């Protein structure tokens, strides 16, 4: 991972995709500096897309109230995009499939919690449409170790789920989509952009293992400094890394991009 200062392609970046927890937020809080950085980026004419493991209920708020153009949620289960005052929604699975899968996920969740002492369902589970979120270091006390989070991931995989570890949760879902595949779909369907061909025009910022597909795909991939806690655990690492962690690191990225023009 090279210092962000070595990223010389900032002037051509037309849009920024970014994770939320521990990338945009700091200790669970969206601070004024990070929020203002989003506003400055959007006012500069860049496309802003939040890409998160957070639930549909949260993502509706993000799409409506934040200075973003779209949000991808539940690790790629859907995208929501603002269209004037409305929010357009695209789900990968239909409503009947989502309802059936929620019942199956509830049973899997009960088995995992019984097998892993100290684990708990994420507090935002009631607002999820498509996935199971097990808390390993957001609200659980004491926080679980990364090794325990990886065990939860492995239990999910053994149950037939796709599973990823984020900085706070372990998420599992039916299907083989991820953040990257839905980002490609959003850009193709909503913005008529082929991200593979236009790769150099966009950048991604993240911090944890569930961002690895995005780190691998984007040549302009950036980790905020706290990504280093997962060094050696990432399937793919970001090309660049900020000096500051979390929200301050996001603001650092914004300043670098805005200074590139």
Kindly describe this structure.
The chain is an alpha/beta fold and 261 residues long. The chain has two domains: 2-92 and 177-258, Rossmann fold; 95-173, Hypothetical Protein Ta0175, Chain: A, domain 2 (Alpha-Beta Complex). Helix content is 33%, strand content 20%. The chain contains seven helices and 13 strands. It has helices at residues 32-43, 56-65, 95-115, 146-158, 179-190, 212-217, 246-258; strands spanning 2-3, 15-18, 47-51, 70-73, 78-83, 86-91, 120-121, 131-135, 162-165, 169-173, 202-206, 221-223, 240-241. The strands form two sheets. It has a nine-stranded mixed beta sheet with strand order 1-13-12-11-2-3-4-5-6, sandwiched between helices. Strands 7-8-10-9 form a four-stranded antiparallel beta sheet. Helix 6 (212-217) links the parallel strand 11 and strand 12 (221-223). Helix 1 runs parallel beside helix 7 (246-258). The longest helix has 21 residues, at 95-115. The protein is globular and about 50 Å long.
